Amino acid sequence: MSEELQMSGQGSTGNVIAAVCSFFIPGLGQLVQGRFVAAGVQFVLASLLWIILLGWIIHLWSIIDAARWKPPLY
Known about the structure:
By secondary structure, the chain is mostly helical.
């Protein structure tokens, strides 16, 4: 397996940075990873749910999703 594929998987520096970004703004980590649809969905859901104090659920999901994401193998 090439080094590039090993560095872009779960636990890689890029995923840690993405998870930290999502900690501050839900969906920002997905945006950093180039996952525009996931970023938009998570940002909108978290924003809407924070109105009824349940946004923390989506916020937490956003952080975990950014940290665990593996790019597709082509």
